[in-house]
Amino acid sequence: MDTRSRIEAALEKAVGRACAGKAPPAIAEAVRHAVFPGGARVRPRLCLAVAGACGDDTPALSEAACAAVELLHCASLVHDDMPCFDDAATRRGRPSVHALFGEPLALLAGDALIVLAFETIALEAVESPARMARLITTVANSVGLPMGIVAGQAWEVEPDIDMRTYHRAKTGSLFVGAAMSGAIAAGADPNPWRAFGDRLGEAYQVADDLRDAVGSAADIGKPIGQDAAHHRPNAVGQLGTGAALAHLRGLVEAAIASIPPCPRASELETLILSEAKRLVPKELAQSAA
Amino acid sequence: MDTRSRIEAALEKAVGRACAGKAPPAIAEAVRHAVFPGGARVRPRLCLAVAGACGDDTPALSEAACAAVELLHCASLVHDDMPCFDDAATRRGRPSVHALFGEPLALLAGDALIVLAFETIALEAVESPARMARLITTVANSVGLPMGIVAGQAWEVEPDIDMRTYHRAKTGSLFVGAAMSGAIAAGADPNPWRAFGDRLGEAYQVADDLRDAVGSAADIGKPIGQDAAHHRPNAVGQLGTGAALAHLRGLVEAAIASIPPCPRASELETLILSEAKRLVPKELAQSAA
Predict the structure, then answer these.
(1) Shortest alpha-carbon distance between residue A156 and chain B (Å)
(2) Among A218, B169, B173, B204, which is disulfide-ready with B142 (CB 3.0 to 4.6 Å)?
(3) Could you tell me which residues are beta bridge partners of residue B95?
(4) Is the pTM of this model over 0.90?
């Protein structure tokens, strides 16, 4: 099965369990809407790519880990789109969850997705108990307090904010979690993968800043100019477009340089390069080439 | 250490980890406000009582389980109090989390508490891997979809609602989860404890309905009359005060009758009876005696 199919099947298995017959119909629809059809599935692809680079000896476990990472990402998008944060009416080119189902179900759908992520790991890791605790604590670190996604969003309401801490928490943490959980699922030491995930996360954040500043809403499936509208830090605003693009290239190179020795490093490098190309806004692709 | 001290120490250990130095200060405060000082800690006491009845051979694990259950309960209160649900300005006699810290931090604090609950189990269960998966899936079932607390809250927005399914999900599920996780933490079979938790949960719901209908805000630390105000089902509205009180007594007796054979059943029975007495609103205590 190809990577995309593995990811979708793992997500379908998890969401199907949560949205089984006895679930209230509207929240089941809201949860499905939050997860399917997905975006680029960047984080679960990263998780599976690292698992693959490490030998992927237990595919069911790497699939559970990649599903958990994506479910947590989807949860963060649902809550982040809500009126008390970004108040975004669209996501992935479609209505956001609260726009379609109302605020109560958006709040609950996000909660349900967080719970489902941990349940998914626990169910699949029964036969690999030694990896289960590491997977759960690694994934929890990447989304919770003190330094995961929730912390990143919480920095937005603080008067004093260290930009690096903020971006690491809001975006980098789940990239680190995705990379490390791929290694854990394959029975490898996750620590050498921290720097790799960290650099990729920063690269992704800069690319996202570039798309928010100079991309088009049609291309990225959500409103542009949100950082400026919400007075949020943006690399283009701080560095200018050219320097932000050069910074992105440097981060991608640094990420590749930090791939630890592993059986299938070259495939991972190819994936990162094609991903980097995809992330640069069309408007800048020529100057980036 | 007495039960209350064990619960507070376990919660402090978990919350202390989440609110460590690097956490954004305001959300750290919001999370603390959501958890401390607590209410009656009914669910973690139930968890520890069942663990004790089953021998409690790994106290660190039953403490982690009881902390997880209470953190999830606190998360549900924080989200349930928000403007898109109950819009409750007070909780446990103090301002609710969103009233004090704003909606964004209330939303994030609830998310952080959910993540922390699962992390807490994973960290303490490292040396009992066989119990870890059961604890996590049991606790996840009791709060997530299709039949946990989130499902219960989601039933509130459905046009057709089966009252028994609704109450079982919204309140009963975490009582079942608390009882079963106490048994799992002590290495016992959790299944015989399902009926016990289920009946206690229903008893607690009826007691809550009684307090909402005939109690005083000063006694219960939150506004009364919320069920009527939000057109939510309430046992007093459906049965009348006298029949609701008789139903409560019957459920407490049924819960006690369903305690499975275990080393310390009589202590558990004493606890349940004293809890039942505490839960009846003062206004009705004489007629209940």
Answers:
(1) 9
(2) B173
(3) B90
(4) yes
